[in-house]
Design a protein that fits this description.
153 residues, alpha+beta, Nucleotide Exchange Factor Grpe, Chain A, domain 2, 2 domains, three-stranded antiparallel sheet, three-stranded mixed sheet, 2 helices, 17% strand
Length: 153
């Protein structure tokens, strides 16, 4: 009887060890899947940022002439604006936001300086223009650095 109990205990111990190994393997696979999913989402977000950049460029270039556009072109532009808002809302719903610079100062790790200008009236590091918006995830990961022109005296 003792031998049967020992065999049963050995089998149970083996099963428990096998289950623990299976749990470890599943957790590793889950972590890998989460990483790949996050990377895939971030790549998609970066593609959407490019579309938003294009829309912004269109809006900037047409703004001075907006009043003189014919109705068809104006309706088309309104449709593009609606699409732009939908994309921005989609990003917001997924925790993605534009990087903000509340003090209008560069923030290391959130922007890349693409050009500098001299301005004796402003302090070094003051943002003059945001060339391309940067974006940050809900977890704080920078998805794309903002590209800025800043003051350098």
């Amino acid at each position: 009887m003792t031998e049967a109990i020992e065999q049963l205990a050995d089998r149970l111990e083996t099963k428990i060890t096998d289950f623990q190994q299976e749990i470890l393997n599943l957790n590793t696979a889950l972590d890998q899947h989460k990483r790949e999913s996050r990377e895939s989402n971030n790549a998609l977000f970066r593609e959407i940022f490019e579309v938003l950049d294009t829309f912004e460029l269109v809006f900037e270039r047409l703004a001075p002439e907006r009043a003189g556009l014919n109705k068809k072109v104006d309706r088309c532009l309104k449709s593009i604006e609606s699409t732009n808002r939908k994309l921005e809302r989609m990003l917001t719903e997924r925790g993605v936001a534009k990087i903000e610079f509340p003090d209008n100062k560069i923030i290391i790790g959130q922007c890349r300086i693409v050009d500098t200008v001299a301005d004796p009236q402003a302090a070094n590091g003051t943002i003059v223009t945001i060339v391309r918006h940067g974006y940050i995830s809900g977890t704080g990961d920078v998805l794309r650095l903002a590209e800025v022109i800043s003051v350098r005296n």
